[in-house]
Design brief:
It contains one helix and 20 strands. It folds into two domains: about 130 residues, Jelly Rolls (Sandwich), CATH 2.60.120; about 100 residues, no CATH class. The chain is elongated and about 60 Å long. Helices cover about 0% and strands about 50% of the residues. Strand 12 and strand 13 form a beta hairpin. The strands form four sheets. Strands 2, 4, 5, 7, 8 and 10 form a six-stranded mixed sheet that branches. A five-stranded mixed sheet has the order 1-9-6-11-3, with no helix packed on it. It has a five-stranded antiparallel sheet with strand order 14-15-16-17-20. The longest helix has 4 residues. By secondary structure, the chain is mostly beta strands.
């Protein structure tokens, strides 16, 4: 049966993971919006009730539409989403539109926070390679691209500009997680500035912006709260080291 439904889910967090016999305690891996990962499911992964599974975590925001696709030609795909207390909220085995055993969940988050996915199989004991894809849309104006970071669950847009050398293209952005990423000019291996945006609303009623520079280039980084339109630009002059920035006061835009 094809599942394509709007599911109002509770905020999800890392669910309890039981280690497989002979394996270390399993840990969650990070998945970001727009990312596709292909990885094997093996007997050394997490295990429960005779089935092996991997744990993936992503950060969502309120009103965000998400689609989670789990595909495999080796196993009968099944994925689950858990609530903070460990209760199963939704599961799917064959919700993808193709006539196969791929799984798909489509839903709308009603709160921001860490969401957890268990990638597993409908048949106990199966192992093999699978592909997991997370697609997100947002009620905010941030669209992640090779020049834009979407942080704090997609609410904050981060873009950079700078003085280019001959032959260089405009600054690029690489997303690392729902809250962090980095900016670069000539090569993704040559990091210029690392950026992180955190939700500090429960501490001082602010969102927090952290920047760490590894450059002396003339660089400007614009951080925008797409929900309110509040923007601040952090700049560095040519020849001077980019300063370490811990801005915990500017974005008084909670919740």
């Amino acid at each position: 049966m094809r599942i394509s439904r709007s599911i109002s889910l509770l905020v999800l967090s890392l669910a309890l993971c039981i280690p497989a016999p002979g394996s270390a305690q399993c840990h969650a891996r990070t998945l970001v919006c727009g990312q596709t990962v292909t990885t094997p499911l093996s007997t050394s992964d997490c295990a429960a009730s005779g089935s092996f599974f991997d744990v993936w975590r992503f950060q969502g925001i309120a009103g965000q539409r998400v689609q989670i696709d789990l595909a495999s030609t080796a196993v009968n795909s099944l994925h689950k989403v858990y609530a903070p207390d460990g209760a199963l909220v939704v599961t799917d085995n064959d919700g993808a539109p193709a006539a196969n055993e791929d799984a798909r969940i489509i839903g709308t988050t009603n709160s921001g926070g860490d969401w957890t996915i268990h990638a597993t199989t409908a048949v106990a004991g199966q192992t093999g390679s699978y592909t997991l894809t997370l697609t997100c849309s947002s009620l905010t104006g941030c669209v992640q691209s090779n020049s834009t970071l979407c942080l704090a669950g997609g609410r904050f847009r981060v873009q950079s500009s700078g003085r280019l050398r001959r032959g260089e293209s405009p600054p690029k952005a690489t997303q690392l997680s729902g809250s962090s990423g980095y900016l670069w000019f000539s090569s993704a291996d040559n990091v210029e500035v690392a950026v992180k945006v955190l939700n500090g609303c429960g501490v001082n009623g602010r969102y927090w912006v952290y920047l760490g520079g590894l450059t002396d280039r003339a660089t400007s980084i614009a951080v925008t709260d797409t929900k309110t339109g509040t923007t601040k630009t952090y700049s560095n002059g040519l020849g001077g080291p980019f300063p370490t920035i811990q801005d915990t006061t500017t974005f008084a835009t909670c919740p």
